[in-house]
Write a structure and sequence with these properties.
By secondary structure, this protein is mostly helical. Helix content is about 55%, strand content about 0%.
């Protein structure tokens, strides 16, 4: 039996998902603002980048949420986000926790919810992010980083 051509480029299914997640996060980095901003606006912009990148790919949140690779785009994005949160006055440990919560729990959770929604739920979720909408009444989704695309049988 012949292996598919893709397996000449990557070691297996896990490596393929890692590369896909890396490409999605690289897009979020490309979309990150470079102009000087105050820390709060920078954090909001940085959170919007992966949200857009995740939504641009089918099952983008499942791919990135199931990614365990410490690759360049992943580490650079987290480092940039942590640095932006630290600029708001948090110590490194608390900034790391806040950045992880923002990306893992809120952004990934919301996108997982939106990508898994059917029918009228999608419009409701998109309305939550309309300009001028406050989010204080909406509870943050539970952490979805443990959702893995690797649970299906290997090819």
């Amino acid at each position: 039996a012949h292996l598919p051509t893709i397996y000449r480029l990557v070691d297996g299914k896990d490596a393929l998902f890692d590369e896909m997640a890396e490409a999605i996060l690289a897009k979020a980095l490309d979309d990150a603002p470079t102009a000087p901003q105050d820390w709060a606006d920078r954090v909001k912009s940085l959170a919007a980048g992966p949200r857009s990148a995740l939504l641009s790919r089918r099952d983008g949140a499942r791919i990135v949420g199931g990614n365990y690779a410490a690759k360049r785009a992943n580490l650079t994005f987290i480092d940039t986000l942590v640095g932006s949160v630290q600029a708001g006055g948090l110590a490194h440990e608390h900034a790391l926790w806040a950045a992880s919560s923002l990306l893992c729990s809120y952004v990934l959770g919301e996108v997982l919810e939106q990508q898994g929604a059917a029918g009228g739920e999608t419009e409701t979720l998109e309305g939550c992010f309309a300009p001028g909408t406050t989010h204080t009444s909406r509870p943050a989704p539970s952490c979805s980083c443990s959702t893995s695309t690797r649970d299906s049988p290997s090819a």
